[in-house]
Design a protein that fits this description.
Catalytic activity: ATP + protein L-histidine = ADP + protein N-phospho-L-histidine
CATH architecture of the largest domain: 2-Layer Sandwich
Oligomer: single chain
Membrane topology: Multi-pass membrane protein
Keywords: ATP-binding, Cell membrane, Kinase, Membrane, Nucleotide-binding, Phosphoprotein, Transferase, Transmembrane, Transmembrane helix, Two-component regulatory system
Strand content: 15-25%
Protein name: histidine kinase
Order of helices and strands: HHHEHEEEHHEEHHEEEHHHEHEEHHEE
Strand order of the largest sheet: 6-5-9-8-7
Mean pLDDT: 78
CATH superfamily of the largest domain: Histidine kinase-like ATPase, C-terminal domain
Distance between the termini: 70 Å
Number of domains: 3
GO molecular function, one term: ATP binding
Number of helices: 14
Radius of gyration: 54 Å
Amino acid sequence: MRQRWSIAGQLFALQVLVVSLLVAGGTTGAVLLARSDAHDAAVEEVSAVAEAIARSPMVADALRSPDPSALLQPYAEATRAATGTDFVVVMATDRTRYTHRNPALIGQKFAGSVAGALAGGTVVEQYRGSLGESVRTVVPVRAPDGTVMGLVSVGITTEAINRKLLGQAPTVALATVAALLLAAAGAWLLSRRLRRQTHGLGPAEMTRMYEYYDAVLHAVREGLVVVDRDGRVALINDEGRRLLGIGDDARTDRRVDELELPAEAAALLTSRRTTVDEPVPAGDRVLVASQRETRFEGRTLGTVLTLRDHTELRALTGELDSVRGLTEALQSQAHEAANRLHTVLTLVELGRTDEAIRLATDELALAQQLTDQVVGALTEPALAALLLGKSAQASERGVELTVDEASRLEGEPLPSRDLLTVVGNLVDNALEAVAAAPPPRRVRVLVREQDAAVLVRVTDTGPGMSADQAAAAFRRGWTTKDGPGHGVGLALVRQVAERYGGSYDVTPATGGGAVLTVRLPVPA
């Protein structure tokens, strides 16, 4: 199987290639620049030597002598050796050489351009002569009256210039190798860091991982919120946005307190504490949240919060609890009715018929009175059944639960589920409050529709609440009971009230106890 290169490996190879090309280009440019500089330096050198020789009085005097070569040849060779040039030629205006590095060429014609020098100027050219290709200059030798009486040519061969360049080659090569090593080391360090960050994955693997992970995050039916070490939200999937009420266009690369999150969810994210299946109200929803710290190779990356929507489950659980309570109440009543029926039958057997009839009639009237009161005041069947069941539960716990005579609710002004949530939790809270209180233990329930709103008021004779307790009573997690799983009922009541734009409060009851009032406006 063909081995796939990781991103770090590909980047390292690409960097080495690019750096090698850049260094090669730079070296080539440096060589060309050095060659140009060497050529210009040679031109300046031969021009300076030629001008010095042409202006020497000795040269002018020698040109006027009967045998110029005898005087000029030693001088020219000494100057050539002293200046490091390759040839120094002094000639007549007709190109006849008086001096030359090769004595055999003295007396022969000079090969090269001299027209500019004969006109009084300076000739600079690169020419292939008797010594090979050279950079040369030709300048005039002037008489005292200014006329041109001879010419001087000084040159350096191209081979000599190249030898100087080759002498610089080790320095250039060393600089090139050093640049390559430094660039390769930098590329290796960068690729090593990138390899750690990408875990050695290749482009195809990272692309496939991103596509799969993105598909999973969008398809999963649990809300997911990822917060980094700096407290910034790194990721919220589609379900998380829906559950927390965040728009799709909202940027997530912000701090938790900068996003418009529900207060309880924001507090949980900010705390970074570990929790499992903790109920969190979010608007009109009840979410179950689990949060934990994420670590990789000993480093803390942040926290991950998962959310599940348990609103429907909570509502169904509440209805199930109501049905279960009603069932238990009916079982208790059946058991109590059986006892009373045995009593009536025994009285009949004993011949005390009148007492049996009176006992049966009283019990029937008492039971029918409560049923008629609840059913007559509340035509909503689920709510009536709930209160009848709660009445039986209260009786078993030694609590007297009564429905206020002013209660009146026609039809279903609000969904049964919301009414059951509010009334059921308020009554349960009241029963818990009075259960440990000294007698008399009473709970009174008022449910009525007035001023385009449903008013629910539950009064108990329990220990009551202080101002601080009353202020915190409807907050999630507040409870007077020990153990987990409490502090949710009144928070659900608050959610329903806020969803309808209603109100909720706690006030002291006359004679002790507490009055919990919830007002739910009826939608038009």
